[in-house]
Write a structure and sequence with these properties.
- The chain has a single domain, classed as Neuraminidase.
- The strands form 7 sheets. It has a 4-stranded antiparallel beta sheet with strand order 1-26-25-24, with no helix packed on it.
- It is globular and about 50 Å long.
- It has 1 helix and 26 strands.
- The longest helix has 4 residues.
- The model has no long low-confidence stretch (mean pLDDT 96).
- It is 1% helix and 44% strand.
- The chain is mostly beta strands.
Length: 317
């Protein structure tokens, strides 16, 4: 368990929410295209007490949502309407996803690696270096239908002891990687982003979405997946003064993304179609519940949920 005495989120300049506490999202009038997905616009606060909640991932066969509280070096779970600790310490895990066997796949800042955790909480390190040099601090990820794990590797977890352990960048970049757990093969996929952060893929795996949250860069990009390789980068949206951190696709290929103190939704043509306001800076989100229509949102200190008339991508058969 972490023994560090940490300030509340609103008082600690190291917290990602600190410099946004007095900034609000601009008004956006939701389109009819978006409104059909809403039962209402009221989020339920499921839990509070984190410092920077992140990385929600739903494990269907356990009907359990797992999420990270990075500065507190722990992971939590929501099961049967009860919040409990999932792993403490977590080695500063951030983003989470599940593989085809519904093992939890996690980005660890502390381990500078990717973990696999099974139902018995047995942990395996899948990859922790690129050509013999340490990864920076894996941030977010998804698992493709072929089993490969795609993840971003910015340095946020090695800049201080707030979200990991201070360290140096060793391989000289901040890449998007693809890792094949069968062949134990790690390939750099994108090398030219400043601080690649959130990442996901469209339901048909024809589009790859990656956020870049470098200095004065707060962009969400989309790439065409051509023969398994991202090409033709396009800007979806410039989120300044906020940023796009974590996001997921629904079954129709719309992208639901963190966007300051809101969720923004973009259709497959990259048009902004809707926005939902929350009281805290949003980090990430996940579709969960038995029918895949509960949107779970991690937002600074709290976990929120809202029931939708829409399903997440991997719940649609």
């Amino acid at each position: 368990m972490s023994k560090k005495k940490l300030l509340p989120a609103e008082l600690d300049k190291r917290n990602p929410s600190y410099f946004y506490k007095d900034i609000q999202n601009d008004y956006f009038e939701n389109t009819s295209e978006f409104n059909k997905y809403l039962k209402d616009q009221n989020f339920k606060k499921v839990f509070t007490g984190m410092l920077w909640g992140e990385g929600p991932a739903y494990i269907p066969h356990l009907d359990t949502l797992v999420f990270s509280d990075i500065p507190n070096n722990r992971m939590l779970k929501l099961c049967n309407h009860i919040i409990d600790e999932y792993k403490n310490p977590s080695n500063y895990c951030n983003g989470n996803a599940i593989d085809k066997n519904e093992n939890l796949i996690s980005c660890s800042h502390g381990g500078r690696c990717i973990y696999k955790t099974n139902d018995n909480l047995e942990v395996e390190t899948l990859v922790d270096n690129y050509n013999g040099k340490k990864l920076n601090s894996p941030n977010d990820l998804f698992v493709k239908s072929d089993g490969t794990i795609w993840f971003t590797d910015p340095p946020y977890g090695i800049l201080s002891d707030y979200e990991g352990y201070p360290g140096k960048q060793e391989y000289g970049g901040c890449y998007v990687f693809s890792f094949d757990p069968i062949l134990k093969k790690l390939d750099p996929i994108i090398k030219d982003l400043n601080r690649p952060n959130g990442i996901t893929i469209s339901p048909n795996e024809k589009k790859l979405y990656v956020a870049d949250t470098g200095d004065n860069i707060k962009h969400l990009y989309v790439y065409d997946m051509i023969n398994g390789t991202p090409k033709n980068r396009k800007l979806v949206y410039d989120f300044k003064p906020f940023f796009s951190d974590g996001f997921r696709c629904d079954k129709d290929g719309n992208v639901w993304t963190s966007a300051g103190k809101a969720i923004k939704c973009f259709n497959p043509e990259n048009k902004l179609i809707g926005q939902l306001i929350l009281p805290e800076l949003v980090s990430n989100l996940e579709f969960g519940g038995k029918y895949g229509n509960i949107l779970y949102v991690t937002a600074t200190t709290s976990l929120y949920s809202i029931e939708l008339n829409q399903q997440g991508a991997r719940f649609y058969e």
